[in-house]
Each structure stands twice: as structure tokens, then as C-alpha cells.
């Protein structure tokens, strides 16, 4: 996987000093050309990651700003969110080559506090020492990525979700 360097320090400063990017995607979906929305329900949204470390990296989040991955949800709302995670993960697996799909919730009260799930598809052939956390860490670089590539991938994912 070819990656380009990523300025983690600048990213950290930005997320800790600006408004919630997920809330912005909910209010103005697609406005930045990077966070392409691939699926949406009444309560939840799925969109491409702006800084992917793996091709097909999608974020799934509730539209309402919740900060606790379990505690802020009624069971049915949590299960509905997980149903969207499942559907989008299946679409990702139908769209890009995948050896393993990583699903995880990241974030912190100190930055990116809006609950969200990462769907990160590990492609076949990645050496073991470059898998798992190594594959997910922007400190190891991000994929070279353009808005045009994001748009094309989002369209393929939306098609897979319809089928």
C-alpha cells in the first residue's frame, strides 16, 4: 500500500480547536467533496473517511451528537446504528478487495468526540507486521486521495448498497 505522510500534529490541533466534523457532514452532506455520503437513514449516516489509511474506509455515525458509544443510546437506536454498520461493511466488501474488515469505534472527549464507527477493509497481501493497528494509524501515512476518487468510490458503494 503506497501511502503519503500525514501531519498528525496539525490534524490534532485542528480537531481540538474546530467544530465537530461529523455534525458538519450531517448538516451539509458532501459540501467538502471528501466526506461523500454513501448511506443514510432517518437517524444515522455513513460517509467516506477524508484521510483513509485503507481503500474503502467509511465512517458510520448517528446524526445526533452522541459522545458515549453505548451509554448515550437506547438499545434499539444502538442496534439500528449497528445494522447500518453491517450493511455498509457488506457493501465495502462487495466493492473493494478485502482480506479482513476492521470495525471499531474511535474518538475521545478531547477530539472527535461524536460517536462514530470505522469500517476499514484490509486488502489481501498486506504483510502481517503492517496489519491491524499499524494499518489503521495515520502516523504511518494515508492513501493518496482526491475528491474525484472519493466520488467514484462513493458511487460504487451506493450501487452496492442498492443491490
What is the element layout, followed by pairings?
Layout: H1 8-17, H2 21-27, E1 37-40, E2 44-48, E3 58-62, H3 75-95, E4 100-108, E5 111-122, H4 133-136, H5 147-162
Antiparallel strand pairs: 1-2, 2-3, 3-5, 4-5
Describe this structure in words.
With 163 residues, the protein is of the alpha+beta class. The chain has five helices and five strands. Strand 4 and strand 5 form a beta hairpin. The relative contact order is 0.22.
Give the overall form.
Answer: globular
What's the overall average pLDDT, rounded?
96
Percent range of helical residues: 25-40%
First-residue to last-residue Cα separation: 29 Å
Q: Mind describing the biggest β-sheet?
A: 5 strands, antiparallel
Radius of gyration: 15 Å
Order of helix and strand elements from N to C terminus: HHEEEHEEHH
**Uncertain residue segments:** none
How large is the share of residues in beta strands? 15-25%
- Which class of secondary structure composition applies to the elements? alpha+beta
Overall strand count: 5
Please count the helical segments: 5
* Strand order of the biggest β-sheet: 1-2-3-5-4
Amino acid at each position: 500500500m503506497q501511502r503519503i505522510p500525514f501531519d498528525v500534529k496539525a490534524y490534532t490541533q485542528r480537531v481540538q480547536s474546530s467544530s465537530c466534523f461529523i455534525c458538519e457532514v450531517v448538516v451539509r452532506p458532501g459540501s467538502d467533496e471528501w466526506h461523500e455520503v454513501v448511506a443514510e437513514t432517518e437517524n444515522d449516516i455513513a460517509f467516506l473517511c477524508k484521510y483513509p489509511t485503507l481503500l474503502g474506509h467509511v465512517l458510520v455515525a448517528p446524526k445526533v451528537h452522541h459522545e458515549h458509544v453505548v451509554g448515550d443510546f437506547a438499545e434499539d437506536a444502538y442496534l439500528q446504528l449497528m445494522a447500518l454498520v453491517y450493511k455498509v461493511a457488506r457493501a465495502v466488501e462487495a466493492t473493494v478487495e478485502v482480506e479482513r474488515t476492521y470495525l471499531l469505534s474511535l474518538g475521545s472527549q478531547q477530539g472527535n468526540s461524536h460517536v462514530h464507527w470505522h469500517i476499514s477493509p484490509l486488502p489481501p497481501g498486506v504483510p502481517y507486521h503492517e496489519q491491524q493497528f499499524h494499518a489503521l494509524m495515520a502516523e504511518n501515512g494515508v492513501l493518496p486521495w482526491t475528491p474525484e476518487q472519493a466520488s467514484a468510490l462513493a458511487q460504487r458503494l451506493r450501487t452496492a448498497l442498492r443491490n
